[in-house]
Specification:
alpha+beta; binds protoporphyrin IX containing FE; single chain; metal-binding; Uridine Diphospho-n-acetylenolpyruvylglucosamine Reductase, domain 2; binds 2-acetamido-2-deoxy-beta-D-glucopyranose; globular; about 475 residues; five-stranded mixed β-sheet; three-stranded antiparallel β-sheet
């Protein structure tokens, strides 16, 4: 009896959805078909499957079966995944206007809805120019010695032989570099308040979104409010002093649109928190992976060490800090950074949403569906990177084929912080290999996602200061 009712119900549901789909089939795309793939159960869809196995093998298995474009259901959304360089370029570059960024509302609320990466069109272009300007090569070349000083002070607390979480330490470093890029030299008091409150926001970011008091998400929302207050204070102080600084805050404060409008305090705050957010965990996870890769490949470590000690010796003799020119001439270390970006592919994929029905190679990408370029699959495809599971920096002696290497994304939303990130990473590599040796502790295999892949428990490790010789 119960099962009859159940089947009737399913039948009606199927009928209704059939009628609904027919009605929605608009004329121009009548003959287009959806990409291949299995949708699993609606809502639960394939989410369970995605979370019960390594996401990379999940996507890789589908790619093997269906090819460069396939559909699926994850997190309650209808998704189309793109696993080829051309498809990624189509969505991110050539037809970028047809695909808007899309993030869960709960995350948008935490960071601030006016942050540039949630937007598309004029507002995005305006903000992007400002952010790009403050992070350009011309701007960041003046930051080298400050970044080096931050690397030195970040490692001050490492007691010889004591176990520390590499990721945690790298996060402290990347946070301070972020603060430097945004505010220039910021008063200690403000830095501390921002750091403490931001870490509460950070903890809430991956927790279940709810307004129930005492939960990590709610605490994060409250901390986010306090951040706005602190930022308002910093901003009004800056306005009083009428400083024309070239840091991000300076660029944002000086901006006027064509009607002469300045940015509101909320727009300023959302974008500052947005950049801090985009800058911290990303860079810290890449550096954590580099510490692991160099540990796992002693010969490479020796080569990097030789390169960096050469620079270090010259600077120590002449009592000089690291220079911009030196950071641009670290070929061995630079290839290690590139290969780490490829291997770890910490931004495994991104999300967009089709703003209209779009045709790609005879397939229909329906309006409202999510679209995911799969960076990691492209970076791990043997067609583009031979023996992809092997850590081999020398592969970057030849530049990768167009659109096959996108650790910083591509197109209108590509990472404006990529040069700063690389500078910051190279500076840390220089400091690490010239002043320390290290040993990775315990389980060496696991990966944890939070949301970026990082070695298990943030890579616990012991560091020892090297006697300078
Ligand atoms: C190794 C470190 C980093 C990696 C791997 C990385 C990666 C990326 C990627 C893949 C995107 C594009 C996302 C998409 O298209 O959906 C992106 C966007 C962005 N990144 Fe980074 N990033 C890093 C460091 C930084 C740093 C240091 C900053 C700032 C100081 C930064 C600021 C931004 C901003 C503001 C955006 C949004 C751009 C827009 O929407 O127009 N990132 N990043
Ligand atoms: C957060 O910011 C407020 C100022 O709004 C400050 O008084 C407080 O010490 C900061 N730290 C924490 C952990 O809340």
């Amino acid at each position: 009896m119960v099962s009859t009712v159940f089947y009737v119900f399913i039948f009606l549901l199927a009928l209704l959805s059939y009628i609904f789909i027919k009605r929605n089939n608009r004329e121009p795309h009548k003959r287009l078909k959806l990409p291949p793939g299995s949708m699993g159960w609606p809502y639960i869809g394939e989410t369970l499957k995605l979370y019960s196995q390594d996401p990379n093998s999940f996507f890789a298995a589908k790619q093997k079966r269906y090819g460069e474009i396939f559909k699926t259901h994850i997190l309650g959304c209808k998704c189309i995944m793109l696993a080829s360089p051309e498809a990624a370029k189509f969505v991110l570059v050539t037809q970028a206007h047809l695909f808007k960024p899309t993030y869960p509302k709960s995350k948008e609320r935490l960071i601030g809805p006016s942050a540039l990466f949630f937007h598309q069109g004029d507002y995005h272009i305006r903000l992007r120019k400002l952010v790009q300007g403050s992070l350009s090569l011309v701007a960041i070349r003046n930051l080298v010695s400050d970044i080096q000083a931050i690397a030195v002070s970040a490692s001050d607390s490492w007691v010889s032989g004591q176990i520390i979480s590499t990721f945690h330490e790298m996060k402290r470093y990347s946070f301070e570099v972020g603060i430097l890029a945004i505010f220039g030299h910021l008063e200690e008091r403000y830095r501390e308040e921002l750091k403490k409150n931001y870490s509460i926001v950070d903890r809430g970011y991956n927790s279940f979104p709810t307004n129930i008091p005492g939960t990590p998400y709610k605490k994060a929302l409250l901390a986010r409010k306090r951040l706005s207050k602190i930022l308002s204070e910093i901003i009004s102080e800056r306005k009083e002093k009428r400083l024309l600084e070239k840091d991000l805050l300076g660029c944002l404060l000086n901006s006027k649109d064509e009607k002469g409008q300045v940015l509101t305090d909320e727009q300023l705050a959302d974008n500052i928190i947005g950049v801090l957010f985009a800058a911290q965990d990303t860079t810290a996870s890449v550096m954590t992976w580099i510490v692991k890769y160099l540990h796992d490949h002693p010969k490479l470590l020796e080569a990097v060490k030789a390169e960096q000690k050469e620079i270090g010796k010259f600077n120590d003799l002449n009592n000089l800090p690291l220079s911009w020119t030196q950071t641009r001439k670290m070929p061995v270390s630079y290839k290690v950074v590139l290969e780490s970006l490829r291997m770890a592919s910490i931004i495994s994929f991104t999300f967009r949403e089709a703003v209209d029905d779009v045709e790609y190679k005879g397939y229909l990408i329906p309006k409202g569906w999510k679209v995911m370029p799969l960076f990691r699959n492209i970076h791990h495809n043997p067609e583009f990177f031979t023996d992809p599971q092997k850590f081999d920096p020398s592969r970057f002696e030849v530049p990768p084929k167009p659109n096959t290497f996108m650790p910083f994304g591509s197109g209108v939303h590509a990472c404006p912080g990529n040069e700063l990130a690389k500078l910051e990473i190279l500076t840390m590599v220089h400091h690490l290999v010239t002043k320390f040796r290290w040993e990775v502790v315990g389980s060496e295999s696991g990966i944890q996602y939070g949301p970026f892949p990082v070695p298990q428990e943030g890579l616990p490790a012991r560091f020892w200061r090297e006697s300078s010789s």
